[in-house]
Amino acid sequence: MSASYISIGLFASSITGNQIVAFLIALFIGIFFHLIFGLLASSTTGWIAGILDYLSLSTHYESMARGVIDSKDIIYFLSIIFLGLTGTDSTGTRVVVEENGEVTADFLVGRISFSQAQQPQGYSRNQNTIIKSHLRVEDDERVYQVDGFLSMMFSDKVAAYRDKTICRFDKELPVRLTFTYPGDSSLTLVKNGMKWMLNNLPADSVKVATYLGTIATSSGSEFAASDQPIPEFPYTLRIEGDQMQAIEIRGAKDDSAKIYFIQSSADPSALFRSTSPSLFSRIFVSREKFI
Fold first, then answer.
1. CB-based contacts of 49: which residues, under 8 Å, 6+ apart?
2. pTM above 0.70?
């Protein structure tokens, strides 16, 4: 019985770094198992009462306290211990590092704890907060404390590790920008010496340089779902230069649903989707942007 409550306490501690909150969670779970399930069982009938009575910790403890050793009581307590300890690990993030097909690191990043640093001169309004992350290496029962928000370095979402790059280039290298739009709104910018020409007419070279600086390090924020049908791309920007690899950015928008799609030659397998027009509008601009 004691081991069961200890496992519940460990589980509560694993899901929060606040000791008071952990205590309240463990107390709440303990009361449910020790009292509430028994009270609910006594107020109901049928198979539901049987299930609630079996979940009551006090029922199994009273049986063993009378000297009756029943396998169902032993299985019950072992199950609580197992679930409590398993739940402790399941709340963490497991990190597996492989190199050349071999696992070089395998560890679990658990909860974060906070504490106040001791001030030698008494209370101070600028108390320093000490942040500790808990880490356990696979097949090692010991738990280590590491300074800082270690869990923020890892994520259980695959998209967090995908390359979100749309384009990366030196803004001084492009010599030709080709915008292909629906209808007759397409335009071409060509660099002639130190000046830019817009459809064979002089463009504002400062505005062109500003635009290139704006998109030179563009990244997407949200990937489209894997089952998202690839739309037709009526908007295209091709960036070319004598000393750079050509980059092609394609775009599409659904005005009725207010959804914008972008795909880049930097990673043709990545399709970005957004309900905000900011990135789309920053890349696919009109001729007025350069005059």
1. 41, 42
2. no
Q: Are residues 86 and 97 in the same domain?
A: no
Neighbours of 135 (CB within 10 A): 19
If we measure between CA atoms, which residue out of 249, 257, 250, 251 comes closest to residue 275?
Answer: 257
Distance of CA 150 to the CA centre of its chain: 14
Q: Are strands 187-192 and 244-254 parallel, antiparallel or unpaired?
A: unpaired
Residue numbers of the domain that contains 277: 165-290
| DSSP designation for 158 | G
> What pLDDT digit, counting tens, does each position of 171-208 carry?
999 999 999 999 888 999 999 988 999 998 999 999 99
Burial (CB count within 10 angstroms: exposed 0-12, middle 13-18, buried 19+), residue 262: buried
- Where are the alpha helices (H) located in 71-224, listed in sequence order? 71-90, 205-215
Whether residues 98 and 44 share a domain: the answer is: no
Total tally of structural domains belonging to the chain:
3
Residues 18 and 41 occupy one common structural domain: yes
Surface-to-core class of residue 82, CB atoms within 10 Å of its CB (0-12 exposed, 13-18 middle, 19+ buried)? exposed
User: What value, to the nearest 5°, has the Cα angle with vertex 228 and ends 284 and 281?
Assistant: 15
C-alpha to C-alpha distance for 143 and 94, rounded to whole angstroms: 14
* 12, two tokens: 């509560």
